[in-house]
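Repro:
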Amino acid sequence: MSSTPPSDARPVILVVEDEPDERYLAAELLEETGFRVIEAETAERALAILNDHGDEVSVVFSDVRTPGPIGGFELARIIGVTWPRVRVLLTSGDAGDQPSDLRVSATFIPKPWRAADILAWVQDAAGHPAKARIGADVIGTGTNGSRIIVGEAET
């Protein structure tokens, strides 16, 4: 994680995803629209980052299924108690992961997700004005594990 000068007033989004390609795509999408992005492969790493930089992070965007003993739903619960001002967006491509599993104030968006939907939610959650951009319309994982990136859309 690189150190960013305190004068950088861009909202900080913590992306938690163990799949490097998906984490990279989410981070690139968010950085292109004016956010600072911190990446973590596990919920445990995300908590360590929040312990050090919780006052800077506006939003945590996490997969439900993360390696290790803490998954996305538990991560959202911990964040809700420890950093209540941090907004949480959870995503999953597994049909078994349902929003009804979410017992805290967080939002659930199933994969594959549209880039425009993620951007709109994150921008609203971070208090960052929406901007038009051109980019991938759908990003996520198909039922067979294949990466889905469809079309170019303007939002």
